[in-house]
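Table 4 source record.
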Amino acid sequence: MTSTMTTEPTQARRSKIVSAGEGKTLNVFGVRVEVLLTGEDTAGQFCSYECIVEPGAGAPPHVHSHDDETFYILEGTFEVLMGETVVTARAGDIAHLPRGLAHTFKNIGETTGRFVGTATPAGHEHFFEDADALGRSGEFTPEKAIEMCRRHGLELLI
């Protein structure tokens, strides 16, 4: 049996430190997202971001077809929908959301919540950039948001 597997990276990999507050800050449907690592930084393996979520805010229910997401809760209390299960996640908890699973999150606490998210493989950072641009364009409509999400392999369940 012949193996075609290689250990050579498809892109140059390099180490990187992103200091607090130095990520690219975006507004994604009312959630502040600071992109920390992109696919360019990780040879396409993953992207990493911090979400800063005000009380009562969160993401609309949705499904990813291109990537898995994982949230590590740093501060606050979040209600997380995972398929048909709703759980409460607090600082120190982690939620893994495989592609194809309907999910959402909402800050149900009384203070600003924060979590670090990782999407594998990379690419989800482009959705964040396009969502921010749509919001800033002054042309935001639910129909345009749905179409923009579809281009990134996201189905909004609203």
